[in-house]
Design a protein that fits this description.
With 305 residues, the chain is α/β, with parallel strands linked by helices. Helices cover 42% and strands 17% of the residues. An eight-stranded mixed sheet has the order 1-2-4-3-5-6-7-8, with helices on both faces. The longest helix has 15 residues. The chain starts with a helix and ends with a helix.
């Protein structure tokens, strides 16, 4: 907790005063959970069945504040920062999604949480998939949002998109090139992957750029992508072992981004998939269309299994 407070204070000192994103409700508390060789920063609030929210690249668990405020009414909401990102520790290695799925398991074990719903976006999709495949009996429902899963469905075709050059951008030289220019690098994602770039607000850009400027944060970010080759091997092994899993899955895509392709990806690994395409949204669903996105997730989680 002390470590997180010191980091948080340093970010506030470095960022302009206007760099505020929607806060989590005051009933949420933050804690540091040591597990699987690292330390994960976690926000927890609410009461009822548990749901874990897994963020993606270019953001942190802070992206989920509007959804957490809605779900806390009748759920215990658990929001970690992925290893290497946000206020979690930034180890030099361990970014294979199989290992990060074990990070999620360790967080839930430390909180004495058994079964959960999982809601994931971007890199969170990949971590969430690995967690589900390693713990299929622990997951009641799964929401996947607007990103591929290594080795699953049309992965090889997706890789051909020139927009995804960053999947192979990383290493010490790239880290030096981006150092001190994190905002320039991240603006590219926020602009090109938005239906309307202005919907990813200036306050959010300042907030996340400051977090990604922390020592080790860009290494953690680049390492998420560098692990994809191993993730493909692991994910295909999961699919060969488990076959198609049967829990309900909601596949959400922005209609200016992944759209219904998210469902095509999910149907390669799951047999009970529902599809939603959010109008007037690109990749950044919680920034661009939070009301529609929260409503779609809430409606799905409210359905009895």
């Amino acid at each position: 907790m002390i470590r997180a407070l010191l980091i948080g204070l340093s970010i506030l000192a470095a960022a302009p005063a206007v760099a505020q994103v929607e806060p989590f409700p005051a009933v949420f508390h933050a804690q540091e959970i040591t597990t699987n060789g690292t330390t994960i920063h976690v926000r927890v609030g609410g009461h009822g069945p548990a749901v874990v929210l897994l963020h993606g690249y270019g953001e942190t668990g802070d992206m989920w504040a509007p959804l957490a405020a809605d779900l806390m009414r009748d759920h215990t909401v658990i929001v970690p920062d992925l290893r290497g990102l946000g206020l979690s520790a930034k180890p030099p290695s361990g970014y294979e999604k199989k290992l990060q799925g074990q990070d999620v398991s360790g967080v839930l074990d430390a909180l004495h949480v058994g079964k959960v719903d999982v809601v994931a976006h971007d890199i969170g999709n990949m971590v969430g998939f690995s967690f589900v495949e390693q713990n299929p009996g622990r997951v009641t429902r799964l929401v996947l949002m607007d990103a591929p899963i290594p080795g699953i469905g049309p992965w090889e075709e997706i890789l051909k998109s020139p927009l995804l050059w960053h999947f192979r951008f990383g290493g010490p030289d790239m880290e030096r090139l981006v150092a001190g220019r994190e905002r320039i690098y991240l603006d590219r994602f926020w602009n090109e992957f938005s239906a309307t770039p202005a919907h990813f607000t200036e306050a959010s850009r300042q907030h996340y750029a400051a977090l990604y400027a922390q020592p080790g944060a860009m290494h953690g970010g680049f390492s998420q992508f560098a692990a994809f080759d191993q993730d493909v091997i692991d994910d295909r092994a999961f699919l060969a072992k488990n076959g198609k899993l049967g829990m309900p899955v909601l596949a959400i895509g922005g209609n200016k981004s992944f759209g219904l392709t998210m469902a095509a990806v999910a149907r390669d690994a799951f047999s009970n998939v529902q599809a939603v395409s959010i109008p007037d949204s690109g990749h950044w669903l919680m920034e661009e269309q939070p009301t529609a996105t929260v409503a779609a997730i809430r409606a799905f989680l409210d359905k009895p299994v």
